[in-house]
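Deliverable D5.2: sample structural annotation.
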Amino acid sequence: MRRAIVLLSASLFTLAASGASAQNNTPHNLILFIPDGLRALKVTPETAPAMAEVRDKGVNFKNPHSLFPTFTMANASGMATGHYLGDTGTFSNTIFTGYMSAPADTVVPFIENDAVLGDIDEHFGSDYLNEETVLKMARAQGYSTAAIGKVGPALVFDHTDRADKPGLHSIVIDDSTGGKNGVPLSDETKDALTKANLPLAAPSRGENGKAGDAKTPGTTVANTVQQAYMADVAAKVVLPMFKARGKPFVLVFWSRDPDGSQHNQGDSLNTITPGINGPTSLASIKNADNNLAQLRKALDDLGLAATTDVMIAADHGFSTISKESQTSPSAKFSYDDTPKDFLPMGFVAIDLAKALELPLFDPNDKNARVADNAHPKAGNGLLGKDPAKPDLVVATNGGSDLIYLPNNDRKLAKRAIEALLAQDYVSGLFVDDNLGRFPGALAMSQIALKGKAVTPNPSIVVNFRSYVAGCNEPTNCSVEVADTVLRQGQGMHGSFGRGDTMNFMAAIGPDFKSGYADALPVSNADIGMTAAKILGLTPKPKGDLVGRAMTEAMPNGATPKATSGSVKSEPAANGLRTVLNFQRVGSQRYFDAAGFPGRTVGLEAEGGEQETAGK
């Protein structure tokens, strides 16, 4: 079993040569706090006082960027390694692995699962990310490390560690702790939990885990019980243990809220408003904020606050789900679990099967043929005469989907692109450079999806339409079409709209400026590189798609300059063209929004650069 590990720590040995710590040679600790799915502009002194305090007294990263596709596992890989997805191969939450993953019993596994991650690691040379994580490097230097919180992304930070290996291991506590798939706890950790009167098994989400259905609203409570346990473990067990060891530490705390509650909220069944701005979503933001406040109080009580950096970075923003389309053939069918005229789960797979005249099979139902007026169980699809050797694979994710062509069939790619361009729910297409260029689509290399990844590269990434409804602030009231089992009015992410790419980011501590508003673009890949710099670590990258250390936020750090521009594809026959708005620091791009003008929140049609997509 892979061991999860936690993220930040202070560098005892080389910190003096890196960043602001060179000023005093004092080893510093680092806590990375991830409020999953927190929109940047939802943080106020009223909604999230603890996070607002870090932002206002420390560094306010005013120009933040999630990595696209804007999903949890993708961005966890960026934070953990400092690399973009073309290097990490974590292209989304559900990916095509090219082989049957035994724990998931499918070739298209959902990878927010410790057992699945371990299986993928074994298949891809013991390290599917193909890049060292900051936690692994810190652990190798003898730091105390831990990863606590949401199952899946927590483990990514040191996923290749094994309990049977010699040496130090990270403390990993997530949803699976105490179960058969959980990372084993050391005797030291078990004893400490018992002394703190905390159970050795993590509680479930309970009512918060109920998503409802087309007729029954989802949850109306935040994930308070499970996260109270995680926060107690961090504050009452792990931090005191680390202090007693007398060494610097790195701690990653991945808060499932507000993400989990925004996904499942029952405030807005089948209606766009209030969407993810109802009372349940607000309660989930406050829940995550309470967890941060508890951790910072523990630092104060233990006398660790002055020597600990706290970095906050949400993995992505959030949007309300729309299931409406005027063009989709799938929306014209009748399904038992889908309201009339709404898009069913798996609409991309259904529509492509019809357009390409290929049989559709369900990789989450032992490759059974999908009947007419039915949809794949999890939305994923295998298209072709033989599901064991599919011509096309659809990995369903939410605000964007991944399409794989195992045979690299350029003619089939062209037909699929033409079919997608005809759908009103599509807003932008990105195609594997190896397939060539296509009118209406941009190359994946333009968005850092082509690198040294060892997992199969998607052939086509499909971004879905987004728009604004419910308030005057676009990034707080984004609505997007989503390929998901969740309902219209509930929450999702994954798109290339600014509502999903604008995540909350802030930092405070001895290695950061005080009261500083950073206007430069920053990304989740920068989180990993900044952590490495603070810790004095020296990564040895295999790929070139790396973030930058955010030196402008550090005392006496360099402040680079930024520019902006756009890239446009050649227009398709129907006039649609994919446009990408970006900012640049040096040679590094930060992606604001992309898609078809008029169909993506925050997308500006005009800009400086232009790519000519080949005919």
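Annotation notes: DSSP finds 14 helices and 27 strands in the chain. The two ends are 49 Å apart (CA to CA).
The annotation will be released with the project's public dataset once the embargo ends.
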